[in-house]
Amino acid sequence: RARPGGRAGLCDQPADSGKAVPHLNDTSLDGLRVLCVEDDPSVAAVALALLSSLGCEVCCAHSADEALRSDFTEIDLVFSDVRMPGSMDGLEMARHLIQQYPSLPIVLTSGFIEEPKRLNGLALEFVRKPYTTSTVVASICAAIASRGGAIRAKH
Predict the structure, then answer these.
(1) CB-CB contact of 100 with 68 (8 Å)
(2) Quick one: average pLDDT of 20-33?
(3) Per-residue confidence band for 154, with pLDDT thresholds at 50, 70 and 90
(4) What is the side-by-side strand order in the sheet with 33-37?
(5) Cα–Cα distance between 63 and 84 in angstroms, integer?
(6) How far apart, in whole angstroms, are the C-alpha atoms of residue 153 and residue 89?
(7) CA 137, CA 155: separation in Å to the nearest integer?
(8) Which of 33, 59, 78, 130 is 20 to 30 A from 152, comparing alpha carbons?
(9) 3-class SS at 108?
């Protein structure tokens, strides 16, 4: 889908594509509204800078509990750490979000997963820390494609 102003986006699909397969066309996710959930302030700052540099509009939460109080009608994608304090971790939050908002793309990140099998069966993308811009972009595109392949551009 072309962006306003004629610019193609990172996750645009080929016109003849029968299914959503992300491919990289440019270096921007302009207007994508991302909820970044990260309890470590220094990691949150890095994620915020990276996502903002890609054109995303980012809001931050420091726990799953705080994140779940968000207005999900204003969020296009959740980018969350797995391990964090509070009543639930990122995986439990993702399970909740998948049930409540099945079309919401989710990308989880972690430097370590104590029980990798906990990811099995979840409709989301996973990025190991430390991540690179290209792995984050690829994961965002895959998460969006798995949920219908469209980014709602803010007008």
Answers:
(1) no
(2) 61
(3) very low
(4) 57-61, 33-37, 77-81, 106-110, 125-128
(5) 6
(6) 30
(7) 22
(8) 130
(9) strand
For the four alpha carbons of 61, 26, 104 and 82, in that order, the dihedral sign comes to: negative
Q: Say how many Å lie between the first and final Cα of the chain, rounded.
A: 14
Tokens representing 66 are 């705080």
DSSP 45-94: HHHHHHHHHTT-EEEEESSHHHHTTS-GGG-SEEEEES--SSSS-HHHHH
**Using omega within 30 degrees of 0 as the cis cutoff, is the peptide bond preceding 130 cis?**
yes
CA distance 84 to 114: 13
* Residue range 75-88: mean pLDDT, rounded: 95
For residue 26, give the 3-state DSSP assignment. Answer: coil
Q: Which pair of structure tokens corresponds to residue 132?
A: 């690179």
Per-residue pLDDT at 111 exceeds 80? yes
